[in-house]
Amino acid sequence: MKKKVRNNVRFSVLASGSTGNACYVETDSSRLLVDVGLSGKKIESLFKKINRDPKFLDGILVTHEHSDHIKGLGILSRRFKLPIYANEKTWLAMENQIGKIPTDLKFHFECDRVQTFGDLDVESFGVSHDAASPQFYVFHHGEKKLTLATDMGYVSDRIKGTVKDSDMIIFESNHDIDMLMMGKYPWNIKRRILGDQGHVSNEDAGEALAEIIGDKTRRIYLAHLSKDNNMKDLARMSVQQTLEKRGFEFGEKFALYDTDAEVPTDLTTV
Ligand SMILES: [Zn+2]
Ligand SMILES: [Zn+2]
Q1: How many A from CA of 249 to the centre of ligand 1?
Q2: Minimum-distance ligand to the CA of 152?
Q3: How far away, in angstroms, is 79 Cα from ligand 1 center?
Q4: What ranges make up the beta strands (E) of the chain?
């Protein structure tokens, strides 16, 4: 008899937003963290809230060198001797921000590659964003596919193809365009956020997700919300409306979820 592969991948968005990002993914045999955009102390307290301990991590994957993604990276890595994985350009760009990392904890994970961590295959893909070489990740475990994609100026067809029909997607819904335009940010910052190397608006998130969602997709987490130019309800309503207009029906089997800057999402099986 053929042995059945047990699908068992779980995740928690520990923190998400312009104030700091971190996402935890585990199977029965692998444990990974993507980004450490909060202080070491804060990250440890978030791990406690989901009943996990950072000392058991197999590694930390880095998306890009902006401080909301690497603030506590060096501290956490040194404290628990955790390997860090980032592409070459990101290493160069972040090295002077994270303190000294011992050579045996430094690993390369280039763009458009797949690396295997135990029973998790992790695929990296590049995004358009104003960092040295930003990349995000798709996690494959058996039949299950879990995607993390934020910090994108626009969602290219290539990205849509890579992340298509994930069981679970954590996707950027950064700002409401009207709130941003009427808000207090100086014009050059507004232009940066709206530009091709900035962030995805609620409006664009809905449009992109309409092309990304497939038959397998069950849960979408709206992530990296701007503290000043967005609200959870507004993001959810906006994305939901766009998707409903495209014929998607929300219900028990398919739903949108919030993420929070301070409160981790429940550790959830994909
Ligand atoms: Zn960024
Ligand atoms: Zn960011």
Answers
A1: 32
A2: 1
A3: 25
A4: 10-15, 22-26, 31-34, 59-61, 84-86, 106-108, 114-117, 120-126, 135-141, 144-149, 168-172, 219-223, 255-258, 268-269
Q: How far is the CA of 48 from the centre of ligand 1 (A)?
A: 26
| Each residue's pLDDT tens digit, 68-104 | 999 999 999 999 999 999 999 999 999 999 999 999 9
Q: What is the DSSP letter of 117?
A: E
Q: What's the length of the chain?
A: 270
Beta-carbon contacts of residue 243 (< 8 Å; ≥ 6 apart): 206, 209, 210, 213, 250
pLDDT range class, residue 6, cuts 50, 70, 90: low
**Is the separation of the CB atoms in 241 and 206 below 8 Å?**
yes
Cα 5 to middle of ligand 2, angstroms? 35
